[in-house]
Amino acid sequence: MTAELSSASYSLEPIGIIHSPYKEKFAVPRQPRLVPAATAQIELLGEANCPESVRGIEQFSHLWLLFLFDQNLSAGWKPTVRPPRLGGNERVGVFASRSTFRPNGIGMSAVEFRGIRQEGKQTWLDVGSVDLVDGTPIIDIKPYLPYADCIEQASGGYAGSEPERSAVHFCDSARTTLAAHPQAHEIEAVITQVLAQDPRPAYKKDQPDNKEYAVNLFDLNVKFSVSQSIITVTAIERF
């Protein structure tokens, strides 16, 4: 006997919005903590925008962020997906993946907590090792509890280990442009860690590729090419 479905509907109001270096979906890390240099700020909204809502949060080193894949909601979802870790060819069930195309478009990330700031009436949370696009709506924040959330003997299935990383080089002109940026050191680390994961579509990774790609990070358009698993930053342009 099947359970009777409730006719009730539910709505979610964002409690915050994140401001991150990732200005588009392309090249966002596929999991949190893969780009430790990437920091972000959560702008609390509405009734959540008050110091009382985060009282005591400084006791925790990491936080769970629940958020909406807002850029994908209109595209809908399918019961099966092609995970990049399987080369983008093999299908698995959507609930056996972390696909961004989901029935309710909800994502979750464990991020590093870096502090609270109060600017007038605005409360901010600083976080690190993020994998969220700039402007992503945050729908909840919960403390990460090591004793409950870390399962040492867990199996990761087809994604049981971290993805391989490629070597990243900057051409002279790109490095010169970057050196003039006031955040050069931080930005170089983020660019290197993002591109080391080779953000191209999975099916491209075992094929010759003469194409030049571009990704928007911070206030920069970063162009790169890939040859024999070596990624070269060919140009950096300010917006």
Automatic annotation (TrEMBL):
Keywords assigned: Methyltransferase, S-adenosyl-L-methionine, Transferase
Gene3D superfamilies associated with the record: YaeB-like
UniProt xrefs under InterPro entries: TrmO-like_N, TrmO_C, UPF0066_cons_site, YaeB-like, YaeB-like_sf, YaeB_N_sf
Domain TsaA-like: 12-153
Any one GO BP annotation for this protein: methylation
Known EC number: 2.1.1.-
GO molecular function terms attached to this record: tRNA (L-threonylcarbamoyladenosine(37)-C2) methyltransferase activity
Family: Belongs to the tRNA methyltransferase O family.
Protein name stated in the entry: Putative tRNA (Adenine(37)-N6)-methyltransferase
Organism per entry: Vibrio mangrovi
Annotated gene: tsaA_1
